[in-house]
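Write out structure tokens for 5-dehydro-2-deoxygluconokinase.
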Amino acid sequence: MDLLAIGRVSVDLYAQEAGATFLEPQTFLKSIGGSPTNVAVAGARLGLTSALVTGVGEDPLGDYVLARLEEFGVRTDAVVRRTGGRTPVVLVALEDPAEPTITFLRDPEAPDTTIGSETLDDDALRSAKVLWTSVSTLAAGATADTLLHWLDRRARRPHTVVDLDLRPTLWPDAASAAAAAEQAIALADVVVGNRRECEAAVGTADPDGAADALLDRGVSLAVVKLGADGALLATADERVRVPPVPVDVRCGSGAGDAFGGVLAAGLVRGWPLERIGRLGNAAGALVTSRLTCADAMPTLTELEAFADAALVPATSGDVRA
């Protein structure tokens, strides 16, 4: 398996009216979502063998999630069906398209929070070329303990990726989220997050400072997403800054997950940091020009053509003294 993603899943309903709040008449377009789910789809669209570990209810929405994953080419062997559980729903409004309003409709014991360690055997856990998960997976339920167990068993094997993905509404308080982030970082080989997430996890929103803090914690690759300012990718020996790709934003949700799919592909295929950053940033821009997340993920051919048309040189160099 090239990519094994673990964590949140949902049925996402995207309002199609830009500038409208939930108080106004809206029509919605249905897709699937949840950050690790989107990354699994993005990786599959880029040609990776991709699988998802999550849980859905034994309900019509669970049927829909499984059908869409299979259409995208994501393996569903480890997607657990929970009797009596309800598949989560997410509503997205575009009052501000760049910063959509997101409302989570999740039961306290949503199926994706009830995953046990028996769902995945050690061979699958250790042999995946990229294991991808998010800190939000540690927010609730049995899945939190299971994930920490799996990360410990994985033993920071390359490439064990933790997306900081700190969704405040999923946590009882900021301190709990920060503590979980520290636990996950200590078990990760690669960490990716935006400036706000880095500040919550390591105490600074400065890109270089956050990268330094992550590397000091034993991470081999730190990726700091800078939104409209591009991205920073840093190892102990190299630092690459990727400029932004200008685009008319239709829905800002999903850009980071598109970047994640490219990061996974780049790690599997041994791409240099500059290529990962350039294509990752282009993937994020391309997805924000579309309405949904999973359905918007590009193929590699489509992405390369888009990135070449918007090519802006990255800057790279040795680490700072």
